[in-house]
Automatic annotation (TrEMBL):
Protein name (Swiss-Prot/TrEMBL): Aminotransferase
GO function terms (MF aspect): pyridoxal phosphate binding; transaminase activity
Upper taxonomic lineage: Bacteria, Bacillati, Actinomycetota, Actinomycetes, Streptosporangiales
One Pfam family matching this protein: Aminotran_1_2
EC number(s) recorded for this UniProt protein: 2.6.1.-
Aminotransferase class I/classII large domain residues: 60-391
Length: 444
């Protein structure tokens, strides 16, 4: 063969490491495929806030669009000071030197797990990515059930036991991840539970990673969230972002608040090392917009307030429909999720449709009715528990005009496009229970 000729094409002989698509993104794609085929769908799977970006944020982003430089790894001084002020107003006085910014809280969480370098406990159920990230980091997440009705926090009594047993098996358990308020259940652990969790974290020498991305979306006006950073400040890292309260998930910007003191400084150094090798710095224009947002100007406070009312109204209406259909639902107190349990209909669902697991049930809902929801098993719940996460926020509107009308409405659940979706949901749920009663075969 002449010297400069490429050699014959040779197919790669090995498979890349299999990493499944995040369950939330996967259900989104399944719904989009059905929509393209012209099928009727109810998109209740994806955890998107479903409201438009506020024009003041767009303006700030535009003003900083010319910032092409990398900037400091930890984030700009302006963003770190604004985030420190944000936390200070929530009872967590913060030195800007303890704040690290990143391209969303998701990569910050992964970088934290990498920096901590030990095994991690996550709640069962809990947000899909904690366990997936732990696995990517080469760790085997330890799942601990939450107390009844208090999602997001592993039961403190079970946590101590799980850590002692894991250590006896040789595992180097170093951290516990909590979600306050919680995704997937929309509930908030009580102050007493958070205090007990912190006491166990101290006894067992664990770092607490507190994901507080839904903190500003508590439904009750003036409602607060207990943060482990209040009760175990020396060992708690808090993360948040603009993705949920300001619906800027696609902008990819988040912040972490590290503990003060020698451990916090060492963790910061390590986190910065990881950040410097993966994302270098958070996007500069986003940092500028986020500094504006974390300073909480009145127009954004009002916007978040309206979105909180919208989430409360629609998630409450959806919860009512599930309850009316016979599911057990713990009333959500925050965010835009609910976690109905079809356990009370288990025997009938098995007899009529052969349903034995949450995945069987969500598959039936998707294929037969075009309803996209996620099985509890995607969140680490027991596969046989007939629970699912329902995220109604994509019902707010097909376009920004409808979404703005929903934000402005005193009774958003009565707007025709939302009421229509709610009625369709009731129809599906009553058909499911009617076919349960009639004993119809699955996937008719
Ligand atoms: C509990 C929780 N944490 C983190 C994230 C990711 O947020 P970000 O967009 O800041 O990466 C999500 C998004 O769904 C979430 O639900």
């Amino acid at each position: 063969m002449p010297q400069n000729q490429p050699s014959a094409v040779r197919p790669v002989s090995f498979e890349p490491r299999p990493v499944p698509l995040s369950a939330t993104l996967a259900v989104n794609e399944a719904i989009a495929r059905k929509r393209r085929r012209g099928e009727r769908v109810l998109p209740l799977g994806f955890g998107e806030a479903g409201i438009p970006i506020h024009p003041a944020l767009t303006r700030e982003l535009g003003a900083a669009a010319g910032r092409g430089g990398y900037g400091p790894v930890a984030g700009s001084a302006a963003l770190r000071a604004a985030a420190a002020g944000y936390w200070g107003r929530r009872g967590l006085p913060t030195d800007p030197g303890t704040v690290v910014a990143g391209p969303g809280s998701k990569p910050l969480l992964f970088a934290l797990l990498t920096a901590l370098g030990g095994d991690v406990v996550v709640a069962a159920p809990s947000w899909v990515s904690y366990a997936a990230q732990a696995s990517l980091a080469g760790l085997d997440p330890i799942r601990v059930a939450t107390p009844p009705g208090e999602g997001g926090v592993p039961s403190p009594a079970l946590l101590a036991d799980a850590v002692v047993r894991a250590r006896a098996r040789g595992r180097d358990v170093r951290a516990v991840v909590v979600t306050l308020p919680d995704n997937p259940t929309g509930t908030i652990a009580s102050e007493a539970t958070v205090r007990r969790l912190c006491a166990v974290a101290r006894e067992q020498d664990l770092v607490v990673i507190s994901d507080e991305i839904y903190r500003d979306l508590v439904h009750a006006p003036g409602g607060t969230v207990p943060s482990p950073a209040q009760y175990a400040p020396e060992r708690t890292v808090v993360t948040t972002s603009l993705s949920k309260s300001l619906a800027a998930g696609g902008w990819r910007i988040g912040v972490a608040r590290l503990p003060e003191g020698p451990f916090g400084r060492a963790l910061r150094d390590s986190l910065m090392g990881v950040a410097s090798e993966i994302w270098s710095s958070a996007p500069a224009p986003m940092q500028h917009a986020a500094a504006f947002a974390f300073a909480e100007p009145p127009e954004l406070v009002e916007h978040v307030d309206r979105s909180r009312r919208l989430h409360a109204a629609v998630v409450g209406a959806v919860a009512d429909r599930f309850t009316a259909a016979g599911a057990r639902v713990v009333r959500p107190e925050a965010a835009f999720y609910l976690y109905p349990d079809f356990g009370p209909m288990r025997d009938e669902l098995e007899a009529a449709h052969g349903i034995r697991t949450a995945a069987d049930l969500t598959h039936l809902l998707l294929e037969r009715y075009g309803v996209g929801v996620l099985p509890g098993s995607s969140f680490g719940d027991a596969p046989a528990a007939l629970r699912m996460r329902v995220a109604p926020s994509l019902l707010y509107g097909e376009d920004d005009e409808q979404r703005l009308a929903a934000l402005a409405s005193p009774a958003p659940a009565s707007l025709p496009w939302i009421a229509g979706a709610l009625d369709r949901l009731s129809e599906v749920l009553s058909d499911l229970s009617a076919s349960v009663t009639a004993g119809e075969p699955a996937l008719a």
